[in-house]
Specification:
Blueprint: E1 8-12, H1 17-28, E2 32-37, H2 50-60, E3 63-68, H3 74-88, E4 93-96, H4 111-136, E5 143-146, H5 156-159, H6 162-182, H7 185-190, H8 196-206, H9 210-213, H10 220-226
Parallel strand pairs: 1-2, 1-4, 2-3, 4-5
Helix pairs in contact: 1-2, 3-4, 4-6, 8-10
Amino acid sequence: MGEFEGRTVFMSGGSRGIGLAIAEKLGSEGANVAIMAKTDKADPRLPGTIHSAAEAIEAAGGKALPILGDIRDEAAVVEAVEKTAAHFGGIDICINNASAINLATPAELPVKRLDLMMQINVRGAFVVTQACMPHLRKSDRAHVLSLSPPLDPDRKWLATHAPYTLSKYGMSIITTAAVQNLLGADEALARARTPQSIADSAAIILARDPAACTGNTYVDDEVLAEAGITDLSVYRAAPGGDLILDIFLQDWGGFGPDGPAV
């Protein structure tokens, strides 16, 4: 038995390239792989269809379910996911592989190409992941994997193809955020803080000399600590562990002991 024997994968795209390679690899380890892509008929300029991909997956040793569809169509995605779950008995892995690329600069990129990248890369990943989530919650080893880059603030990624970078970073953000939906609401609430922590911090800041505050950014924990308030347990929304930091802070731990997961 392979590592993925009995596990079911729902993948966007996958009729060729990296997606197909991943699908074949997982298939060789016994996985059931459903691929949703737009290519139904062979094109000499761009080889690979959902049918040839299914044949390759099964030749590798897995089971395949080719589904014709466009991930920009929410209803079609939901239908494809439900079809997959019914056919294989559930979904354990969601892979956001489908992607659109255009490396033109903001000055040169047509708006319709920007729209396409945002619709497929960001919105597509969101729709596919959201549709899979009810089934992933039932799995004892759920994963969401997106073919997108780590969030690197280096400006070189914005130098020539900022629109494409924006769309791919969006995929990464959507994927990281998915961990919140795989965890129970009780854990999230236990680490959340009440609005009073922000209210108290705001009052402290607004009592200061405006000239000393201008140009600064503040974190409520630090503002409260400077004012001598170090016991933050009074700000817990519910009994629980350590309070979570704001999501935009570099050291944010995510909703779980190991931080954000993909």
